Amino acid sequence: MYILINMRLFLLILLLLTFTGPLMVLLSGRIDFHADWRTANRESAHIAPDPRTHPEAVIQVYAARTFNWRGLFAVHTWIAVKPKQATHYTVYQSIGWRLLHHLPPVTIANDIPDRYWFNQTPLILLDIRGEAAEKIIPQIEKAAAHYPYNNQYDYWPGPNSNTFIAYLARHVPAMRLTLPSLAIGKDYLPDSQFFAPAVSGTGYQVSFYGLLGITLAREEGLEINLLGLVYGFSPLQMTLKLPGLGDIKWDKIVGF
Hints:
Structural class: alpha+beta
Largest sheet: 7 strands, antiparallel
Shape: globular
Distance between the termini: 43 Å
Protein backbone atom coordinates (compact mmCIF):
# COMPACT_ATOMS: atom_id res chain seq x y z
CA MET A 1 0.00 0.00 0.00
CA TYR A 2 2.85 2.40 0.89
CA ILE A 3 4.52 1.79 -2.47
CA LEU A 4 1.21 2.29 -4.28
CA ILE A 5 0.61 5.64 -2.54
CA ASN A 6 4.13 6.81 -3.36
CA MET A 7 3.69 5.79 -6.99
CA ARG A 8 0.45 7.75 -7.23
CA LEU A 9 2.12 10.77 -5.64
CA PHE A 10 5.02 10.50 -8.08
CA LEU A 11 2.65 10.32 -11.06
CA LEU A 12 0.67 13.31 -9.76
CA ILE A 13 3.85 15.40 -9.40
CA LEU A 14 5.02 14.30 -12.86
CA LEU A 15 1.69 15.32 -14.41
CA LEU A 16 1.85 18.70 -12.68
CA LEU A 17 5.41 19.30 -13.87
CA THR A 18 4.48 18.22 -17.40
CA PHE A 19 1.33 20.26 -18.00
CA THR A 20 1.71 23.30 -15.75
CA GLY A 21 4.34 24.88 -18.02
CA PRO A 22 2.45 24.50 -21.32
CA LEU A 23 -0.72 25.72 -19.61
CA MET A 24 1.07 28.82 -18.33
CA VAL A 25 2.42 29.52 -21.82
CA LEU A 26 -1.08 29.06 -23.24
CA LEU A 27 -2.63 31.48 -20.75
CA SER A 28 0.15 34.02 -21.26
CA GLY A 29 -0.91 34.58 -24.89
CA ARG A 30 2.66 34.05 -26.02
CA ILE A 31 1.44 31.76 -28.80
CA ASP A 32 -0.91 33.24 -31.41
CA PHE A 33 -3.20 30.38 -32.42
CA HIS A 34 -4.93 32.57 -35.01
CA ALA A 35 -1.73 33.29 -36.94
CA ASP A 36 -1.61 32.29 -40.59
CA TRP A 37 1.78 30.94 -41.63
CA ARG A 38 1.38 32.69 -45.00
CA THR A 39 1.15 36.15 -43.40
CA ALA A 40 3.08 35.62 -40.14
CA ASN A 41 6.08 37.88 -39.50
CA ARG A 42 9.26 36.52 -41.10
CA GLU A 43 11.19 39.80 -41.13
CA SER A 44 14.54 40.45 -39.47
CA ALA A 45 14.51 40.96 -35.71
CA HIS A 46 17.58 43.23 -36.18
CA ILE A 47 19.75 41.16 -33.85
CA ALA A 48 22.54 40.03 -36.18
CA PRO A 49 25.35 42.47 -37.04
CA ASP A 50 25.01 44.09 -40.44
CA PRO A 51 27.58 42.46 -42.78
CA ARG A 52 28.07 45.81 -44.53
CA THR A 53 29.53 47.34 -41.36
CA HIS A 54 30.90 44.19 -39.65
CA PRO A 55 33.52 42.54 -41.89
CA GLU A 56 34.60 40.03 -39.22
CA ALA A 57 33.43 36.41 -39.35
CA VAL A 58 30.26 35.67 -37.37
CA ILE A 59 28.52 32.53 -36.11
CA GLN A 60 25.17 32.86 -34.37
CA VAL A 61 22.75 30.18 -33.17
CA TYR A 62 19.10 31.12 -32.70
CA ALA A 63 15.99 29.58 -31.19
CA ALA A 64 12.33 30.60 -31.28
CA ARG A 65 9.06 29.00 -30.24
CA THR A 66 7.67 26.76 -32.96
CA PHE A 67 4.51 27.62 -34.89
CA ASN A 68 1.02 27.20 -33.44
CA TRP A 69 0.29 24.63 -30.67
CA ARG A 70 3.75 23.05 -30.95
CA GLY A 71 5.14 26.29 -29.51
CA LEU A 72 3.64 25.29 -26.14
CA PHE A 73 6.28 22.58 -25.88
CA ALA A 74 9.17 23.24 -28.25
CA VAL A 75 11.49 25.65 -30.01
CA HIS A 76 13.00 25.62 -33.50
CA THR A 77 16.77 26.20 -33.74
CA TRP A 78 19.06 27.27 -36.58
CA ILE A 79 22.62 28.44 -37.25
CA ALA A 80 23.64 31.54 -39.22
CA VAL A 81 27.25 32.04 -40.35
CA LYS A 82 29.09 34.84 -42.15
CA PRO A 83 32.70 34.30 -43.27
CA LYS A 84 35.14 37.18 -43.00
CA GLN A 85 34.39 39.98 -45.51
CA ALA A 86 31.21 38.19 -46.69
CA THR A 87 28.26 40.39 -47.62
CA HIS A 88 25.57 37.90 -46.59
CA TYR A 89 24.75 35.18 -44.07
CA THR A 90 24.32 31.49 -44.75
CA VAL A 91 21.58 29.87 -42.67
CA TYR A 92 21.62 26.18 -41.73
CA GLN A 93 18.31 24.67 -40.66
CA SER A 94 15.91 21.77 -41.17
CA ILE A 95 12.26 22.51 -41.99
CA GLY A 96 9.67 19.75 -42.00
CA TRP A 97 7.15 21.22 -44.44
CA ARG A 98 9.70 21.09 -47.25
CA LEU A 99 9.08 17.35 -47.48
CA LEU A 100 5.48 18.11 -48.53
CA HIS A 101 6.95 19.73 -51.65
CA HIS A 102 9.33 16.81 -52.25
CA LEU A 103 12.31 18.88 -51.10
CA PRO A 104 14.96 17.81 -48.58
CA PRO A 105 14.17 19.32 -45.15
CA VAL A 106 17.74 20.49 -44.61
CA THR A 107 18.34 23.85 -46.23
CA ILE A 108 21.66 25.71 -46.44
CA ALA A 109 21.08 29.04 -48.14
CA ASN A 110 21.82 32.74 -48.14
CA ASP A 111 19.13 34.21 -45.93
CA ILE A 112 18.24 36.69 -43.22
CA PRO A 113 19.98 35.27 -40.14
CA ASP A 114 17.62 36.55 -37.45
CA ARG A 115 14.14 36.14 -38.93
CA TYR A 116 11.09 36.01 -36.70
CA TRP A 117 9.95 32.39 -36.73
CA PHE A 118 6.35 32.95 -37.83
CA ASN A 119 5.67 35.78 -35.34
CA GLN A 120 7.93 34.31 -32.63
CA THR A 121 10.93 36.42 -31.59
CA PRO A 122 14.29 34.64 -31.98
CA LEU A 123 16.71 34.42 -29.08
CA ILE A 124 20.48 34.13 -29.50
CA LEU A 125 21.93 30.96 -27.99
CA LEU A 126 25.51 31.45 -29.19
CA ASP A 127 27.54 34.29 -30.70
CA ILE A 128 31.10 33.70 -31.94
CA ARG A 129 33.07 36.29 -33.90
CA GLY A 130 36.48 37.01 -35.37
CA GLU A 131 39.26 34.45 -35.75
CA ALA A 132 37.45 31.82 -33.67
CA ALA A 133 34.45 31.98 -36.03
CA GLU A 134 36.75 31.80 -39.09
CA LYS A 135 38.17 28.48 -37.87
CA ILE A 136 34.78 26.96 -36.99
CA ILE A 137 32.74 27.86 -40.10
CA PRO A 138 34.46 25.27 -42.38
CA GLN A 139 33.84 22.63 -39.71
CA ILE A 140 30.12 23.44 -39.71
CA GLU A 141 30.05 23.15 -43.51
CA LYS A 142 31.75 19.74 -43.36
CA ALA A 143 29.47 18.39 -40.62
CA ALA A 144 26.32 19.54 -42.42
CA ALA A 145 27.41 17.68 -45.56
CA HIS A 146 27.43 14.40 -43.58
CA TYR A 147 24.09 14.80 -41.73
CA PRO A 148 22.38 11.39 -42.10
CA TYR A 149 18.76 12.59 -42.17
CA ASN A 150 18.78 14.95 -45.12
CA ASN A 151 15.63 13.27 -46.49
CA GLN A 152 13.80 12.53 -43.24
CA TYR A 153 11.89 14.71 -40.78
CA ASP A 154 9.65 13.73 -37.87
CA TYR A 155 8.38 16.47 -35.56
CA TRP A 156 8.43 14.04 -32.62
CA PRO A 157 10.65 12.56 -31.33
CA GLY A 158 13.00 13.27 -34.27
CA PRO A 159 14.92 13.63 -36.41
CA ASN A 160 13.79 17.23 -36.70
CA SER A 161 15.23 20.75 -36.79
CA ASN A 162 16.79 20.42 -33.34
CA THR A 163 18.27 17.02 -34.20
CA PHE A 164 20.10 18.69 -37.08
CA ILE A 165 21.56 21.50 -34.95
CA ALA A 166 22.49 19.05 -32.18
CA TYR A 167 24.26 16.88 -34.76
CA LEU A 168 26.31 19.87 -35.95
CA ALA A 169 27.17 20.80 -32.36
CA ARG A 170 28.36 17.30 -31.50
CA HIS A 171 30.55 17.20 -34.62
CA VAL A 172 31.89 20.72 -34.09
CA PRO A 173 32.71 20.73 -30.36
CA ALA A 174 34.62 24.00 -30.74
CA MET A 175 31.23 25.75 -30.86
CA ARG A 176 30.54 24.71 -27.25
CA LEU A 177 26.84 25.00 -27.98
CA THR A 178 24.24 24.16 -25.36
CA LEU A 179 20.70 23.79 -26.65
CA PRO A 180 17.72 24.72 -24.45
CA SER A 181 15.64 22.00 -22.84
CA LEU A 182 12.73 23.02 -25.10
CA ALA A 183 14.70 21.91 -28.18
CA ILE A 184 12.75 18.66 -28.50
CA GLY A 185 14.62 16.32 -30.84
CA LYS A 186 18.10 17.32 -29.66
CA ASP A 187 18.39 13.98 -27.85
CA TYR A 188 17.53 11.92 -30.93
CA LEU A 189 20.85 10.22 -31.66
CA PRO A 190 21.69 9.32 -35.29
CA ASP A 191 22.50 5.89 -36.68
CA SER A 192 20.65 4.05 -33.89
CA GLN A 193 23.19 5.13 -31.28
CA PHE A 194 22.23 4.91 -27.63
CA PHE A 195 25.28 6.61 -26.11
CA ALA A 196 26.95 9.84 -27.24
CA PRO A 197 28.58 13.04 -26.01
CA ALA A 198 26.16 15.67 -24.75
CA VAL A 199 25.39 18.44 -27.23
CA SER A 200 27.75 20.81 -25.39
CA GLY A 201 30.56 18.25 -25.43
CA THR A 202 31.00 18.66 -21.66
CA GLY A 203 29.47 15.32 -20.66
CA TYR A 204 27.56 12.33 -21.98
CA GLN A 205 24.06 11.07 -22.57
CA VAL A 206 22.13 7.86 -23.03
CA SER A 207 19.06 8.09 -25.24
CA PHE A 208 16.64 5.59 -26.76
CA TYR A 209 15.46 7.21 -30.01
CA GLY A 210 14.86 10.53 -28.27
CA LEU A 211 12.01 9.07 -26.22
CA LEU A 212 13.78 8.07 -23.03
CA GLY A 213 17.18 9.06 -21.79
CA ILE A 214 19.44 10.91 -19.40
CA THR A 215 22.15 13.54 -19.89
CA LEU A 216 24.84 14.41 -17.38
CA ALA A 217 27.21 17.22 -18.38
CA ARG A 218 28.84 20.30 -16.94
CA GLU A 219 26.86 22.71 -19.14
CA GLU A 220 23.51 20.90 -19.39
CA GLY A 221 23.61 19.62 -15.81
CA LEU A 222 21.24 16.72 -15.23
CA GLU A 223 18.52 16.25 -17.85
CA ILE A 224 15.96 13.43 -17.81
CA ASN A 225 14.15 12.84 -21.08
CA LEU A 226 10.67 11.30 -20.86
CA LEU A 227 8.87 10.96 -24.20
CA GLY A 228 10.97 13.80 -25.58
CA LEU A 229 10.18 16.22 -22.75
CA VAL A 230 13.06 17.34 -20.52
CA TYR A 231 13.09 17.64 -16.74
CA GLY A 232 16.30 18.66 -15.06
CA PHE A 233 18.57 21.06 -13.23
CA SER A 234 21.86 22.76 -14.10
CA PRO A 235 23.96 23.78 -11.07
CA LEU A 236 26.38 25.72 -13.29
CA GLN A 237 23.63 27.80 -14.91
CA MET A 238 21.40 27.73 -11.81
CA THR A 239 18.43 26.72 -13.92
CA LEU A 240 15.51 24.37 -13.39
CA LYS A 241 14.29 22.71 -16.60
CA LEU A 242 10.62 21.91 -17.12
CA PRO A 243 8.36 21.14 -20.11
CA GLY A 244 6.75 24.22 -21.63
CA LEU A 245 8.66 26.69 -19.48
CA GLY A 246 12.12 25.57 -20.50
CA ASP A 247 15.16 26.81 -18.57
CA ILE A 248 14.10 28.71 -15.46
CA LYS A 249 16.75 30.77 -13.71
CA TRP A 250 16.32 31.79 -10.10
CA ASP A 251 14.98 35.18 -11.18
CA LYS A 252 13.29 34.51 -14.56
CA ILE A 253 12.35 32.13 -17.33
CA VAL A 254 15.12 32.20 -19.96
CA GLY A 255 13.65 33.82 -23.08
CA PHE A 256 11.05 32.39 -25.41
